[in-house]
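A common beginner's mistake is to predict each chain separately and then try to dock the pieces by hand. The better habit, illustrated here, is to supply every component at once so that their relative placement is modeled jointly.
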Amino acid sequence: MSDCRRQWNREDELPVYLAGPISTGPNQRKSFGMFSSVEGAFESKTIDFDNYAVGRKGSRTPRSGSRERVLDAEGGAERSAGRRGHRNPERLLIKGGRVVNDDQSFFADVYIEDGLIKQVGENLVVPGGVKVIEVNGHMVIPGGIDVNTCLMKPYLGTNPVDDFLQGTKAALAGGTTMIIDHVTPQPGDSLLDAFECWQEAADKKACCDYSLHVDIPQWNETVKDELELLVHEKGINSFQVYMAYKDVYQMSDSELYEAFSFLKQLGAVVLVHAENGDLIAQEQRKILGMGITGPEGHPLSRPEELEAEAVFRAITLGNRVNCPVYITKVMSKSAADTITQARRKGSVVFGEPITASLATDGSHYWSKNWAKAAAYVTSPPLSPDPTTPDHLHTLLACGDLQVVGSAHCTYSTSQKAIGKDDFTLIPEGTNGVEERMGFVWDKAVAMGKMDENQFVAVTSTNAAKIFNLYPRKGRIAVGSDADIVIWDPNSVKTISAKNQQSASEYNIFEGLECRGGPVLVLSQGQVVYEEGKLQVQQGTGRFIPRKHFPDHAYQRVMFRNQGKEAVTRGMYDGPVYDVVPTPKYITPAPSAKSSPTSHQPPPIRNLHQSNFSLSGAQTDDNVPRRSGHRIVGPPGGRSNITSLG
Amino acid sequence: MMSERRCSQEDDCSSLLSRLGSDSPRPRMKYGGMFCSVEGAFENKTLNFESFSPQTQRRRAARTHSDHYDGGDVLRVGGQTVVFPSGHTRENYKSSTQTIPVSPSPTIMTIIKRNGDRLIIKGGKVVNDDQSFYADVYVEDGTIKQIGENLIVPSGVKTVDAYGQLVIPGGVDANTNLLTPQKGLNPTDDFYQGTRAALSGGTTTIMDHVLVEPGTSLLSAFDQWRETAEQRACCDFCLHLDVTRWHEGLYEELETLVKDKGVNSFLFFMTFKDKYQSSDSQLYEAFGVLRDLGAIAQVHAENGDIIDEEQKKLLCLGITGPEGHVLSHPEEVETEAVYRAITIAKQANCPLYVTKVMSKSAADVIAKARKKGIVVYGEPITAGLATDGSHYWSKDWATAAAFVMSPPINPDPSTPLYLTSLLACGDLQVTSSAHASFSTAQKAVGKDDFTLIPEGTNGIEERMSVVWDRAVSTGKMDENEFVAVTSTNAAKLFNIYPRKGRIAVGSDADVVIWNPKETQTVSAKTHNLTLEVNILEGLEFRGVPSVVISGGRVVLEDGKLNVTEGSGRFVPRKAFPDMVYKRIRARSKMAEARGVPRGNYDGPVHDVISMTKSIPPTPTTRGPPCPKTQTCLRNLHQSGFTLAGAQVDDHIPRRSTQRIVAPPGGRSNITSLS
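With all components supplied together, the output reads:
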């Protein structure tokens, strides 16, 4: 790496930061014939991004930091060291593959050492004794990043059947080498405690690298300090807020506004669960009242419109605060269209469809089999419109939606059966971490909607950029983590609960065929999945801290941060109507929609009250007459400030 | 009692006859060839809609019944009110006869005087929302008696010359605030001044908003408004009610208002946080109630939460002038609320009327929703159609403050053109004025803090001219659409059609002779308001009313206004307006969701161990202390089957803990049906 940098220096005789992709002057561009490639272009295909990515200089430090932290925390330093020691010597050369990044594809070999990609190019000079993987023209893509999993989300004291071990195993089997899990504290819990609890569990169990989103269940002052701490010291840059789950997680618009403003200052990405909780609560009551208690009540009480409405509102709030907004779980056409339109108007908003919404539809809620119907319960619910998956894929392909998540949160049928007499009690969540990449390939790339580069973008690169993991994750480049998937576009697999990695007994994609899948998966430079066999080690996954102010989300926002200006005018010195403290002005009653933090409007602040008055309350004040309000000749003479313009 | 009985007898008879006219399949007679007109087509151009519109069958009965009392002057008053809406006829009649002895004699005198006018409008082109034709109009007793050519009229009838001009139904202004106090300030234009200005601009019916302060009774507020208006108004009026705090206890009052008081529209605020704002839950509940009662929900659509935050922010930034108002009420906030209101109305299956559509994007949201089939109506106002919000940045504080209203007038100068286009194509339906005038001295209450500036602009007088100038004379709209957006649509929506909003036999004689060629320049010097500023100052508008007839009496002629205080009548409106509710009714029949009949789930149920995690419903963030959303866990089958109590390894989510391979009692096959 350093070699490469020095070479550049010599060649261009320019400091590294100028040798970026943007040439600074016309004299610098040397062309070697119109279609011939630049000299040395294939030597090291990848830009050494680390050195001139502004604000990312320290991206190397947290890694080592985290590793040390893990060692300290575990106490089992020897074990870890031994593990690493066992793993690290592995040097791999992936030969004869076609490297696919989000921007381009090219044939190159990839050399991996110490869990990092060390060289990318042809005819690499590698040390002897290297394990060579011949991939014979298969695609070599960056490992997938699943930005939305809930592997530990408790529901009434029960935990999902897929914990960090099962979940990450399933993820790796599907070609996903990193997950970002949601920390879901209950209202009143400390965010920090919850975060630490999650991190501890994940450190013990996860088999692939992970990071964490923290959900904010309630907005209050103490949360602010914790958020600050999480952002600055714990490496969290994304927080989820809820517009649904009335009386539990739901925030009012005022609170959302405050939360957005605060998170913007911290440089964090706001994730929004967008559904109108007020209306859902009403609809649920109505539907239970009608005697509908089965899972079909779930989509009936959460119609598509409520999702679209909340998305619209979240975007409006984001625009007002000037803060990037990330909509988790885009499940319906109208919600996706709302995002599309907002992006067209320039809003900084990102949308995340999930495996379930991309591969199946909500018609199953009406299944005669309760267990099957209940397995589909997630919120926002799957849209019953069968054309939804197609539409969402189209928007993904054209870039209107950016990231594919899975919202993997599995409960067993007996857990789902908690709500067998009341659909509102069914724990929400579907599987999808394992099938995520496959279905995007099958429904978008194999159908010709999307090219392979866009496939890489939506399954990994975009997520890495939005959440500031790029280019460590989400790219095959020198210096990136060796999270690599060898992808076979032609393999066909039938999804079934029988042969899945996940522990759930019901797979909502049961029986669907899926073209495209991983042949081989490398996580941290280790082969963890090959030919259908998983070789994972519990606890090898590392926590990846993420820095605040991700460029991809915040650059535009920063430029838009311009202040508003007041109009400079002379003081108004005309007559001022004397506000008689009439009994008509009723004291503001306890608000219908207020949050405890916002205060009442201050009492009328009429600083000039003493200047002029119509000698107190007039007897005929209550009769609105002309003479009562027009002051023809105010004491002190007429002012002409009012007739300037 | 006598009258009632007779009424019902007559009613039977007339409805029978009317059905004969329309229902029985009679052979269609053709006179002549394809393009020949039907015989007698030009005699009486107007349909006698009374006889075969099923809703209004009883009107005829009412009429005869009033004729019966033709002799006496006092009773004449009853006849006057009795003319139209069937359901209210009797009550009205009763109430008016009851009130007459009580009410002071001037009222009777004016009405008697009004009835004296017999007029024939000659030579004009009658313009309704569906067609235009040349005809004379004969007016007697405050109603239109004959329309056609060569009318036979009694002698001594006053002739109003309308040659070369349009004879249009008097305007209906669906949104005024002539008595609504803001921050303890009363508007400078009360019912007298306001209706006077309305008449001078060609508007003969206003619909005023009754603002019910939180905690006060709807009925008493309504009565107060009605009383004041009856004493002061110079033109007919209806009342909308603004419900500032919804709770279920209001149901009875609403029912009384709808069924007995002739109010069928209620406005809810989505803004004015901590004062009038309603939460989404409240709106949903209220909309459901309104749908059942057959009323129309109106909303002031702005997101109060965001506005509140923005106001705080701007005041902190040191922006205290009127420009802060428009900065804190951005367009998006309006659009968002419109979108939300539509979503709620769709869910509740309630017709929605969005007052004061001020921005392009809000209008677009309405247009799109209509395309999806949602029953929603949008109302742009005079100010939004005639001017833009650049004036908020005026160096003159008084000018800037005069424009303060919410939603604010949009700073985008292309907004008026856009709104008129949508109005012309039918995506927006009604124009109103949202008239609420506060003098500069009153506005100056907020000279150091824009949030204290009382909100409201004028526009009641200029409304019709603005629409004509911006839409008709530019060629966007034809004269029939002009009539539709200025009067007919409002009359239909709020169920006073065809009494208002149409020139037809039997309609009220609210007629305007419109001169499309003349122009007028708006100025605070010449307008008929007490207000000392006019936000349309200096603008020139083509199209002015040359004669205005209200209740059969000429009130504007030769530029002279001749109004009588207190001559305006309250026009009651019935529930379930056809134009709005036909679709709603059909949908409520369709919309019944059905559950899936399945066998009972009898598989294993996970035992919910720690109930402590289920949090007691916290004081809701967004709702009022309204009904509880959800009761506690209702796991009725908890005792049916348990995994032998808490397992030691329950906290470790493992496959084996939850999958029960062979539940006691054997496997059920209900779970593997499909």
